[in-house]
Amino acid sequence: MSDSTSYPSPRAVTDAYFKRMDAGQDFLDLFADDAYVCFPKHTPARGLQEVRGLFGDIFVLFRSVVHEIAYFNYIAQGDFLIVEGTTHGVLADGTQWRATEGLGGRFCNVFEIRDGKIQRLHIYLDPDYGDADIARYPWLTTV
Fold first, then answer.
1. Which of 5, 14, 40, 47 reaches 20 to 30 Å from 115, CA-CA?
2. What is the chain's pLDDT, residue by residue, as a tens digit (143 residues)?
């Protein structure tokens, strides 16, 4: 007997992830119970409790964030969906960024999705959205 369970497409899962995040809605139901998430400069999260903690740590850095979904590039291979895109928004300190106007806000996420749930997510981006890390990167003073 075959399993007739129907799951949302990986693209539907990732689009729901970004849309809910931007709207401030819960999106953790999109993750598997034993999900693994890696975000730059943060300890990787294993399991929903740690994933919740990781996103909680990150969200306090922002007043708002908008993922520009209409302009995303998607690459699918088996259980993997790679999403390349841009964002704009406002940091907690009021600093604004827009990927098309500065250095911050470009990202690439690698999702592993099985049975309609995010099993693994690696987020690749520079978390210095406001280009404040000029002490280590002096060329930023000329941008």
1. 40
2. 445 589 999 999 999 999 999 999 999 999 999 999 999 999 999 999 999 999 999 999 999 999 999 999 999 999 999 999 999 999 999 999 999 888 889 999 999 999 999 999 999 999 888 888 888 887 777 75
Strands annotated E in the chain: 31-38, 45-46, 62-67, 73-77, 80-91, 96-98, 106-114, 117-125
Question: What residues pair up with 23 in beta bridges, in sequence order?
Answer: none
* Tokens representing residue 68 in the block: 């520009």
What does the alpha-carbon distance between residue 91 and residue 57 come to, in Å, rounded to a whole number?
13
HSE (CB half, 13 Å, CA atoms) of 36?
6
Query: Taking the CA of residue 112 as centre, how many other CA atoms within 13 Å lie in the half-sphere pointing to its CB?
Result: 10
> What span, in angstroms and rounded, lies between the C-alpha atoms of 102 and 97?
7
